[in-house]
Amino acid sequence: MSVLGKIVIGTWPLSGDFGARSLGDIEACLKKALDAGIRRFDTAPNYGLGFAESALGMVLAGGEGVEVYTKCGNRPFIGKDFSPDGLEESIGQSLKRLRRDSIEGVFLHNPRTEVTDYEPVVERLEALKAKGLVNQIGLSGAKGYDYSAVPEGRLDMFQQDANLLYLKEADGARPRFKTFFARSPLATGILSGRLSEETVFPADDHRAGWLKGDRLASLVRRVEAIQSVLPDNMDVPTAARRFLLHHPSIDSVICGVGRPGHLDGIIADATADPLPPAVTDALIALHDRDFDRPPEEAGLGY
Ligand SMILES: NC(=O)c1ccc[n+]([C@@H]2O[C@H](COP(=O)([O-])OP(=O)(O)OC[C@H]3O[C@@H](n4cnc5c(N)ncnc54)[C@H](OP(=O)(O)O)[C@@H]3O)[C@@H](O)[C@H]2O)c1
After folding, report:
1. Is residue 119 part of a domain?
2. Which is the closest atom of ligand 1 to the Cα of 186?
3. Is residue 265 part of a domain?
4. d(Cα 225, Cα 218) in Å, to the nearest integer?
């Protein structure tokens, strides 16, 4: 059973924030996705300070059946602004960069303490939806933040980290939000299985600033623990993607793509069988026992 329709291509790795990318690189990635039948793309105004949206606009303009999702509330060169007028202005600027009159969806981008009263914010998004500028409205959550102040049932989509290292909110989105988008299946590259304690990211890759030292060492041990419960012929990225793609509470999976080669595994896993139940159970047990608690309490010394 193909679950290709659940895949959304995450364009943050194409923005330059993980190292420079040319327009040619971006075009190669987006065209390869389209050729494989993937039509959904997630971006944000501040990915590469507008570069990701502009590049998507150039490459995808006029593409039939293409669904673009962007965000609002964090603007290039301005920063956080969740005022209703600021949100409307941001969406207008995104439409220009994306070269579209309307887009499939817009998410509030990582509101933390900036929004205490969601009513005027949601009302403005609903008004933009009623005008036909966006088809769906939603919230992209910052990890660990509580969004119970969001009025129930008014936002179509909730986007949150969900991967083998962090499954906390994969089941908890409904009924406050209608659909759940799991993002970062490879935990921004941590679950690629290619990292070691010696990995050093280039200075222009944002991971250089935080994926290092004790944190890197701890995460590498977690990835080794995941590999240890998989069958011999299965690697961690494959298990990570197939787990999410067949998860009953997950409607869409936003997979980051920074190079055309990244798409090979994504496409293969979208047409592969679900993981055997014993593997799924072992991954959930490992997560609940060792990842879903502070490192000092976890059994494996992460
Ligand atoms: N707050 C928010 O709204 C928010 C936050 C985070 C992400 N997002 C969205 O969610 C998307 C997905 O997150 P993510 O970019 O962190 O995605 P991801 O799928 O967790 O990680 C993608 C990264 O994994 C690495 N990778 C290694 N081997 C790979 C392989 N075989 N196939 C694919 N990737 C491989 C690549 O980086 P290297 O090869 O360079 O290691 C790639 O850039 C983002 O692009 C963005 O659209 C939104």
Report:
1. yes
2. 20
3. yes
4. 11
